[in-house]
Amino acid sequence: MAADSERQVVLITGCSEGGIGHALAVAFAAEGCLVAATSRSLGSMRGLESDPRFFLQELDVVSDESVGRALESVMARFGRIDVLVNNAGVHLVAPLAEAPMPAVEHLFNTNVYGPLRLIQAVVPNMVTRRKGKIVNVGSVTALAPGPWAGAYSAAKAALHAMTDTLRLELKPFGISVINVVPGGIRSNFGEHSMANYSRMPEWKLYKPYEASIRARTAQSQGPRATPAAELAKKTVSVVLKRNPPAWFSYGHLSTIFAIFYHLPLCLRDFVYRKIYKI
Ligand SMILES: NC(=O)c1ccc[n+]([C@@H]2O[C@H](COP(=O)([O-])OP(=O)(O)OC[C@H]3O[C@@H](n4cnc5c(N)ncnc54)[C@H](OP(=O)(O)O)[C@@H]3O)[C@@H](O)[C@H]2O)c1
């Protein structure tokens, strides 16, 4: 086993059991990394508690204070962060014209400003060491945004755009930035999305589409969804490369979304209107 000073220190957000972050934590640890696994509550990572490869911390990405506290503990423990993985994210299913603004703001705060908050906190140390990797977990939905999850797609598109800029801006400091773009991955995402949806108001304009809108909450979790562990293993092998690629997309429907991205908009709209009966 390599000395701790030679092992990669990886900080991951949103590591609750059953999700992609948790699977990434396990996969990075399996490759010999020291993993600072974080989530909003330690209780959601209980399965990692007794394993010395994991340093568990509470971290809420919407709170400057929580981010500051968690990073202080990680720096005190390891003295560095080699890889930051911005994985934490929430879903929101609601037609854009009626989506409650507080829910949209919370979504952007979690999925866009959250990663940026972490990046701004971690980058100074990486710059000093002229070394580091930042992984942002995007989504294929940003490639071809369809109905009912418009705010989520917009937030992921914003994250993709920030990732592209950061890759260029951080290159002079020796920091690589990687966009990991999952397709449909089995996790708690659908369950969390449904719980969020149950807090939505009754639709006014979109009442006739209620069944189609509700079904969107579970769309990523069909029987053919890719196991999170499979995505995690592939992602880790890509991220740990000496020269990692700028883009890594993997999982159920990722090829279809890549094709959708290149389709003329009239064709893409035609297909979506058929699928969503809109
Ligand atoms: N599953 C898919 O098909 C899919 C596809 C494309 C992209 N993604 C992206 O993959 C990432 C992981 O999602 P997942 O599929 O693993 O879903 P998940 O099982 O719902 O996990 C989401 C994680 O984010 C955490 N989280 C939410 N708000 C947070 C906050 N304010 N601070 C810190 N952590 C927070 C959750 O914590 P709690 O347990 O405390 O809620 C949970 O640990 C997300 O960015 C998602 O958008 C997923």
Tell me the name of the CATH homologous superfamily: NAD(P)-binding Rossmann-like Domain
Based on the structure, what is the oligomeric state of the protein chains?
single chain
- What structural category characterises the helix and strand content? alpha/beta
The number of strands is 9
Strands of the widest sheet, in order across it, are 3-2-1-4-5-6-9
Our estimate of the beta-strand percent is 5-15%
The value of Rg in angstroms is 19 Å
Envelope shape: globular
- Tell me the domain tally: 1
CATH architecture: 3-Layer(aba) Sandwich
Instruction: Note the gap between the termini.
Output: 57 Å
Question: For the residues shown, what is the average pLDDT?
Answer: 97
CATH topology: Rossmann fold
CATH class: Alpha Beta
Could you say which small molecules are bound to this protein?
NADP nicotinamide-adenine-dinucleotide phosphate
